[in-house]
């Protein structure tokens, strides 16, 4: 498979969660990738990443992972803003940002940050 642009690669990866079908992870990630989730879990290398994905597919259904913005920092680093929704025993819905670094056209490091989807304005008149 030819290498995708970083934006297409990220879109395709997010879509795999919604479709619940993944090509080989080397399509997206380097073999020594580092993936840090917004709640603190961290996976290093393809075996850990594969184990996490298999676990999540058994316990969670991603109903939507919508990309709102791509912010290229450099040719090898992107910040992506998104909204994530999933069903486990409860519905999860939050906004987030990912800082995604690339090496040789694949993700070598991904760090997620969460923000609350529901907002309020405490000082609005």
From TrEMBL:
Residues 10-109 form the SnoaL-like domain. It holds the Pfam family SnoaL_2. InterPro entries: NTF2-like_dom_sf, SnoaL-like. It comes from the Bacteria. This is SnoaL-like domain-containing protein. The lineage of its organism: Bacteria, Bacillati, Bacillota, Bacilli, Lactobacillales.
């Amino acid at each position: 498979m030819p290498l995708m642009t970083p934006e297409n690669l990220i879109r395709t990866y997010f879509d795999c969660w919604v479709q619940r079908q993944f090509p080989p992870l080397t399509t997206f990630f380097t073999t020594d990738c580092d993936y840090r989730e917004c709640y603190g879990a961290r996976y290093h290398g393809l075996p850990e990443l594969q184990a996490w994905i298999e676990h999540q597919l058994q316990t969670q259904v991603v109903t939507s992972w919508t990309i709102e913005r791509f912010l290229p920092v450099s040719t090898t680093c992107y910040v992506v803003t998104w909204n994530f929704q999933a069903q486990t025993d409860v519905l999860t819905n939050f906004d987030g940002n990912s800082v995604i670094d690339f090496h040789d056209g694949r993700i070598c490091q991904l760090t997620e940050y969460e923000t609350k989807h529901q907002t309020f304005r405490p000082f609005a008149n």
